[in-house]
Amino acid sequence: MSPDLEAVLALQAEDAIVAQLNQKLRALDERLESLNTERTSVEESLERARTTAEAEEKRRRELSVKVEDHKAMQERNLATLDVVRKPKEATAAMAQVDMLRKVLSQEETDLHSLSLRVPDVHHAIDGQQKTLAELDARQSEQRAAHAAERAVIEKELKKARSIREERAAHVPPPILRKYERILSRNTSNVLYALRGQACGRCDTAIPLQRRNAIAAGRAIEVCEACGVLLYAAG
Ligand SMILES: [Zn+2]
Predict the structure, then answer these.
(1) CATH 1.10.10.10 fits domain 16-169
(2) Which of 6, 62, 118, 149 has a CA between 20 and 30 Å from the CA of residue 96?
């Protein structure tokens, strides 16, 4: 095996380690993302419960004010009823009192049912807050484990990258350029051994002359079908 080929194979072996570590980091990112998604969903439920509580509280306040206004108005209506003398005016005043009584009765019913809902709404908020606190307690362990795992992987990756650079320095620049170009568009290996008379990756037959050059270790050829670098094993 030519020293050039040995150098590229050594580089490829280290690049495989780099790729594996990067894959681990991506998997870790996905797990972190799913923790975040889970938390966001609970937070949104809590936010919805709070919004509902605020809206109900606002309705209750507004309705209370309205009831107070209508009660004052009814007192004035009743006072008017006391002083009117003409039957026609008395009938009109009576009609107003009756109408407002109905309105007040409906408003007080509504106010009462709004008041009954207050504990439910607060119960819902408490429930969501509890769920969020439990989730955070559980997730804090998971997040700590994540961070520890990430630190280990990143340290390994830093080491693997520096070994990789060292090995790349031993590969002749023209071969390295080809190698890097293929690596950048290919997530799998760059170098493949000939399998019989064909490319070890895509199985396309390699012309005899080029095959001989590869076998003699004179050249690291590119497979014209799939673009990887070819070498003769053994
Ligand atoms: Zn091929």
Answers:
(1) no
(2) 62
Residue 23 is given by DSSP the state H
Q: Is this structure's pTM higher than 0.85?
A: no
Q: How far apart are the first and last CA of the chain?
A: 7
**CA gap 14, 164 in Å, rounded:** 6
CA of 24 relative to ligand 1 center, distance in Å: 28
pLDDT tens across 150-167, in order?
A: 999 999 999 999 999 999
What is the rounded CA–CA span in Å between residue 23 and residue 227? Answer: 23
- Classified as helix, coil or strand, 229 is strand
Question: Rounded distance, CA 155 to CA 162, Å?
Answer: 11
Q: How far apart are CA 222 and CA 191, in angstroms?
A: 9
Largest Cα separation within the chain, whole Å, is 127
Q: Tell me how far the alpha carbon of residue 220 lies from the centroid of ligand 1, in angstroms.
A: 13
* Gap from CA of 2 to ligand 1 centroid (Å): 21
Per residue in 70-89, pLDDT (tens digit) is 999 999 999 999 999 899 99
What would the 3-class secondary structure string for 139-185 be? HHHHHHHHHHHHHHHHHHHHHHHHHHHHHHCCCCHHHHHHHHHHHHH
- Per-residue tokens: 75: 């007192």
Contact 18, 161 (CB under 8 A): yes
* Ligand 1 centroid, distance to 192 Cα (angstroms): 8
Domain ranges of the chain: 16-169, 172-234
